[in-house]
Amino acid sequence: MISLKAHAKINLSLDVLSRRDDGYHTLQMIMQTIQLHDTITLEKIPSGVEIICEAPYVPDNSSNIAYKAAEAMLQQYNIQAGVKIEITKKIPVAAGLAGGSTDAAAVLKGINMLFELGIEPAEMMRLGKTIGADVPYCIMGGTALAEGIGEILTSLPPAGNIPLLLVKPRIGVSTAWVYKSLEVKKITGKPDTKLLMSAISAGDISTLALNMKNVLESVTCKRFPVIENIKKDLIRHGALGSMMSGSGPTVFGIFEDVEKAEYAFDKLKNSKHECILTHTV
Ligand code: ATP
């Protein structure tokens, strides 16, 4: 039996460059692992894949992306046994925090350890890509530039331990819907990704916080104006900057120190939104 932490991610920037003929979009994003995590427990069983997950809105069957990851791993490496997966969810679902992708990444890493397969991360990332575009990043973790459809990864210097407050309105947003609704030719407010990468290298959190941009906000904020209000609330209560993560609806604020993040948490914790204090790792 083995237990792993499956960390969530936020986007420190998200730009869409083009729409491919197959419907996927080419992206340029700065990804960042955060401390918030699900816990994945894996156990050898005689055959097949079993999954236990009691969280609402998460399938506890072969539709769960963690189940698909386990099946792919058992098949690819011809493993003559099965695996039981237990998922304890702490990452909000359909929230722009890569909750499913990180569970899948942890299953790949965990099966590698449980069966002592000795597979290198690069090979696991190749298999991960067949399961979901964000899975390779979740295997790698840390601070990274993600390009292509999210699978071409360049590791960046670690952003350090930045205090964060996540605020998630109680709505789920379908990533597919957001991308389908995006009119690539009409995108404005693009991030200056180079500037953000230099700010991260220099440990300049203010420049990072003030220049973060996510072009998907145009779609999600239009449909759910509450997101824009949360961004403003975070700034009003002391955040250096605030932005929606991924396709939303989670918004995060970046803070100068933990005390300031806790102050904002106290101000917002009784709102109708889910508030989570965390930090980058
Ligand atoms: P991303 O940021 O990668 O777009 P997300 O954080 O917005 O992802 P997820 O939490 O991964 O979204 O959930 C997306 C959908 O996937 C949900 O509708 C959920 O039912 C389904 N799903 C399948 N497996 C999982 C899992 N292990 N954890 C969470 N959701 C899962």
Automatic annotation (TrEMBL):
Domain GHMP kinase N-terminal: 64-142
Keywords linked to the UniProt accession: ATP-binding, Isoprene biosynthesis, Kinase, Nucleotide-binding, Transferase
Molecular function per GO: 4-(cytidine 5'-diphospho)-2-C-methyl-D-erythritol kinase activity; ATP binding
InterPro entries per the UniProt record, alphabetical: GHMP_kinase_C_dom, GHMP_kinase_C_sf, GHMP_kinase_N_dom, IspE, Ribosomal_Su5_D2-typ_SF, Ribsml_uS5_D2-typ_fold_subgr
Enzyme Commission no: 2.7.1.148
Catalytic activity: 4-CDP-2-C-methyl-D-erythritol + ATP = 4-CDP-2-C-methyl-D-erythritol 2-phosphate + ADP + H(+)
GHMP kinase C-terminal domain sequence ranges: 197-269
Keyword Nucleotide-binding: yes
Key word Kinase present: yes
Name of the top EC class for this enzyme: transferase
Residues at the catalytic site: K9, D134
Pfam families linked to this entry: GHMP_kinases_C (PF08544), GHMP_kinases_N (PF00288)
GO process annotations (BP): isopentenyl diphosphate biosynthetic process, methylerythritol 4-phosphate pathway; terpenoid biosynthetic process
Residue numbers binding ATP: P92, V93, A94, A95, G96, L97, A98, G99, G100, S101, T102
Pathway noted in the entry: Isoprenoid biosynthesis; isopentenyl diphosphate biosynthesis via DXP pathway; isopentenyl diphosphate from 1-deoxy-D-xylulose 5-phosphate: step 3/6
NCBIfam families: ispE (TIGR00154), PRK14608.1 (NF011202)
Task of the protein: Catalyzes the phosphorylation of the position 2 hydroxy group of 4-diphosphocytidyl-2C-methyl-D-erythritol.
Family that this chain belongs to: Belongs to the GHMP kinase family. IspE subfamily.
The protein's name in its UniProt record: 4-diphosphocytidyl-2-C-methyl-D-erythritol kinase
Species assigned in the record: Ruminiclostridium hungatei (Clostridium hungatei)
Phylogenetic classification of the source organism: Bacteria, Bacillati, Bacillota, Clostridia, Eubacteriales
